[in-house]
Amino acid sequence: MLLGALVAPDAICSRFARSIRAGRAAIYLGSLARALYNASKPSVWEIVGASRQICESYREMNEEYVTQVEGAYRISGTRVSLDSVVYGWLNGLSPESIVDSYPVLTLEQVHGALAYYLAHQEEIEEYLSQGEAEFEGLRQELRRKLSETKPLLYQKLMAHKQQKTVPSS
Q1: Do 23 and 96 meet the contact criterion of CB atoms below 8 Å apart?
Q2: Nearest-angstrom CA–CA distance, 126 and 37
Q3: How sure is the predictor about 45, in pLDDT bands with cuts at 50, 70 and 90?
Q4: Strand 72-75 with 66-69, pairing
Q5: Which residues share a beta bridge with 72?
Q6: 51 to 36, 68, 91: CA distances (angstroms)
Q7: Which string of DSSP letters, residue by residue, matches 72-119?
Q8: Which of 5, 108, 113, 144 reaches 20 to 30 Å from 21, CA-CA?
Q9: For residues 25 and 115, is the Cβ–Cβ distance under 8 A?
Q10: Reduced to 3 states, what is the DSSP secondary structure of residue 69?
Q11: Which among 132, 150, 127 has a CA at the least distance from the CA of 142?
Q12: Residues in CB range of 155: below 8 A, 6 or more apart
């Protein structure tokens, strides 16, 4: 395979791991892809094979940043949920801003968590969807209980909510 002929796989993995820890994974992958392409104009299959090999080492490396505790994904060594980091990032926060929001996290941990999310995106998206559905179910249940046990309070809250949502002229 082209990858083995150009650079030893162990060297690629260690350089890639160092670049991830420094938050430069995308830069490293881009420069590696250019080097592979310019070296001998590889076939599509050689590039795909090289990419798979890189991604497998990427998946193995970033496992240390996220752990699953009682069904919830957490940033390893902290109580911060992966959800918090991913939602912040998806809402446009930079990794540095996420670190500002969660001082217990290092920039390395945030980049590692985002790398984990990107490497396991389908699985994490399903986990997040389940969490949103569970939240919506609990919200509906609490509304039902409040309307049954304290109907006057419930009516006042709903009236206030409607006033807030109606735009004033």
Answers
A1: no
A2: 35
A3: low
A4: antiparallel
A5: 69
A6: 10, 27, 29
A7: EEEETTSS-BHHHHHHHHHTT--HHHHHHH-TTS-HHHHHHHHHHHHH
A8: 5
A9: yes
A10: strand
A11: 150
A12: none
Structure tokens at 166: 């109606």
Query: Count of CB atoms within 10 A of residue 13's CB?
Result: 17
How far is Cα 80 from Cα 14, in angstroms, rounded to an integer? 28
Q: How confident is the model at residue 57 (pLDDT cuts 50, 70, 90)?
A: low
**Cα–Cα distance measured from residue 30 to residue 54, given in angstroms and rounded to the nearest whole number:** 12
Is residue 27 within 8 Å of 19, Cβ to Cβ?
Answer: yes
Domain regions of the chain by residue span:
2-62
pLDDT per position as a tens digit, 70-111:
989 999 999 999 999 999 999 999 999 999 999 999 999 999
Both tokens assigned to 38:
């310019």
Residue type, 159: A
**Rounded CA separation 111/86 (Å):** 11
